[in-house]
Design brief:
There is one protein chain. This protein is mainly alpha-helical. The protein has one domain. It is about 35% helix and about 10% strand. Strands 1-2 form a two-stranded antiparallel sheet. Strands 3-4 form a two-stranded antiparallel ribbon. Strand 1 and strand 2 form a beta hairpin. The radius of gyration is 16 Å and the shape is globular. The protein starts with 8 loop residues before the first helix and ends in a 9-residue tail after the last helix.
Length: about 130
């Protein structure tokens, strides 16, 4: 399995209304990160603060500057340390990564999915709560 190359596929795929935040996260944003909280509407995330419309892309996903024009696009999360748990837990399953065309997956991972899943679980252990399995 490769390291994440910041292709942004996961953020782009799931930011169109497919992500959620816990009430605790929303409450903390309201108190400590009003710049994030302004994108919350009715307990759901990523709504335009002006129009109230669901955004098709996470407002905190940023295209990273390129050193050379021919480089592939890379993305950064401007709220990485305060991102929702949904974001912290992704990816959780090898088949989910395959479905989403995650660029971390290699052919060798598909040859031994159980081993690849164990490797993914180790890689993601610092992002997931101990109750996540």
């Amino acid at each position: 399995m490769k390291d994440c190359n910041q292709c942004g596929k996961c953020c782009i795929k799931y930011s169109d209304g497919d992500l959620s935040a816990t009430q605790e996260e929303i409450d903390l944003w309201e108190l400590f990160n009003p710049d994030i909280f302004e994108y919350v509407k009715g307990g759901q995330i990523w709504f335009d603060p002006e129009t109230g419309e669901q955004l098709s892309l996470c407002p905190f996903l940023e295209l990273a500057p390129k050193a050379k024009a021919e480089e592939k696009d890379k993305y950064n999360c401007s709220i990485y340390l305060d991102r929702p748990e949904d974001c912290r837990h992704y990816p959780s399953l090898i088949n989910e990564m395959v479905r989403d065309e995650c660029e971390m997956i290699e052919i060798v991972d598909l040859e031994n999915v159980k081993k690849a899943q164990n490797q993914l679980d180790r890689l993601m252990s610092s992002s997931r709560s101990s109750s996540h399995s």
